[in-house]
């Protein structure tokens, strides 16, 4: 049986997706889209739709593993930003994109895992990105390039205290934590 709200007319569909910015210093891993029906030939980040019941962080880690073979604990992915996208003119389909960043372990070399959707993968310096990068992702990568410092040994974007990078600690202080299965739960008593 459908829930009561299912009978309410749908005004729009919100499609959530998670993106992984995998870095080695100032280099970022990009995949060239192929045979996908969307921006084929363009470079993009490892990404995909968030599955029902899955956190956006877990989805980014899953997509990273599925597309590049790089397996990371989702807790190692640092939140970068979120984007809301829609087409001009009031399209009924809207997108909510969640971006995460993680350093690529030195002993791990990404591999092309989905040859029917991706023609190649390559590392690019944040100052020398290819001409054809999917536009919303290019905006994020340019911001990352401006915020990260050359030679930063931490490999992560430097943030001011209290910014998105400190969200986990903020939620923890408020009694809300993400457990090992990456489900958010309230631990306040």
Structure notes:
The protein has three helices and nine strands, in the order E-E-E-E-H-E-E-E-H-H-E-E. The chain is α+β, with helices and mostly antiparallel strands. The chain has a single domain (9-148), classed as Nucleoside Triphosphate Pyrophosphohydrolase. Strands 1, 2, 3, 4, 5, 6 and 7 form a seven-stranded mixed sheet that branches. A two-stranded antiparallel ribbon has the order 8-9. Strand 8 (176-178) and strand 9 (184-186) form a beta hairpin. The radius of gyration is 18 Å and the shape is globular.
Rg over alpha carbons: 18 Å
From the N-terminal CA to the C-terminal CA, the straight-line distance is: 35 Å
β-strand amount = 25-35%
CATH superfamily grouping: Nucleoside Triphosphate Pyrophosphohydrolase
CATH class annotation: Alpha Beta
What's the overall average pLDDT, rounded? 79
Helix content: 10-25%
What's the structural blueprint in terms of helices and strands?
Layout: E1 13-24, E2 27-33, E3 43-44, E4 47-49, H1 56-68, E5 78-86, E6 93-103, E7 118-125, H2 135-147, H3 167-173, E8 176-178, E9 184-186
Short description:
The chain has 189 residues and is α+β, with helices and mostly antiparallel strands. The protein has a single domain (9-148), classed as Alpha-Beta Complex (Nucleoside Triphosphate Pyrophosphohydrolase). It is 17% helix and 31% strand.
